[in-house]
Amino acid sequence: DKGTYPFYMLKEIDEQPNVMRRLAQVYLSETGEPVISDKLLNSMKQADRIYIVGAGTSYHAGLVGKRLFESLTQTPTEVHVSSEFAYEEPILSKKPFFIFLSQSGETADSREVLVNVNAGGYESLTITNVQNSTLSREATYTLLLHAGPEIAVASTKAYTAQIALEAILAKALGEADNQIVAQRFDVRHQLGLVATGIQALVDEKNKIEELAKASFLNTPNAFYIGRGVDQNVSLEAALKLKEISYVQAEGFASGELKHGTIALIEKGTPVIGIITQEKTAGLTRSNLQETMARGAHILTIVSESLAKPGDDIVLPDVDELMTPLLSVVPTQLIAYYTSLNKGLDVDKPRNLAKSVTVE
Ligand code: M6R
């Protein structure tokens, strides 16, 4: 039931602080230590490489997972689009471990990969929101997202739940392997900061609605740019805008724009920079300037510690590994309000189904 909300999507965006808190309750002890079964951790410990598989938004959550697993566990991690992996299987390492990300647990493209993985005799984990779903039943292990039903076709709370759970799992695996970075990573504290941070952002939704109305209602196209995990989030931000507001949007590595795509920038084209990583903040800012010199209408989503006067949306500070959990929220709201103010059916965009059960 969507209660007083006009659409499920907004309700689901608003639920994200609670989803973060619930994951901490379910998967962390009172002292903040991950509670993950030894069996699963032992299987993962033996792996020399992690393969994350997903589609759409779940694939995008996997991209952020790569950063988490590699930083906290030092295990090389590859992320694959399931429809590609199924028929163009990469060369596998000696001891692969597979993680399937799927909100519904029913995505046919991902299931096709899991069938192959099982035929090869490999172990796997499905991270899903739906208990007893196909991908959950057929994988060796399951971790549930506990995000509550996600009804809107555009996935929001499943994305942040997947990333938060990947962070908990990476912390657990890194600690089981005595990795100092993992020992120092206080995932409970971080999830607390994230929950309060998301709350602060959703409390500012009126401001984001004004921004969406001013910049996205009449544009045929838009660009999100960033580097590293900010680039990962830019892909998710663009997908959200495309699927519910029908604005042609691209997410881009900010350094790549000047290698061709900058030719598309015209007077007024919105270019949104996501800036949460200290090492590359200056670079993305100069890439934004380059587009501005060609007439782009630039907007910024920036972590507080990196913010400058004139930035549009400022995100409360969290560990640089966790910033996607915050930076994605304004982009969800931008997509929502653009769709809403265009008078579209936010929850049921054209041509799309909530779970895609055909290949
Ligand atoms: O249920 P899944 O997570 O496996 O679904 C994967 C994609 O179909 C899904 O994320 C889709 O891209 C959403 N509509 C994005 O908002």
TrEMBL record:
This is Glutamine--fructose-6-phosphate aminotransferase [isomerizing]. One of its GO terms (cellular component) is cytosol. Its EC number is 2.6.1.16. Residues 40-179, 212-349 form the SIS domain. It is an enzyme of class 2 (transferase). It is found in: Cytoplasm. GO terms for biological process: carbohydrate metabolic process; fructose 6-phosphate metabolic process; protein N-linked glycosylation; UDP-N-acetylglucosamine metabolic process. It catalyses: D-fructose 6-phosphate + L-glutamine = D-glucosamine 6-phosphate + L-glutamate. The chain holds residues 247 to 605 of 605 of the full protein. Homodimer. It comes from Secundilactobacillus silagincola.
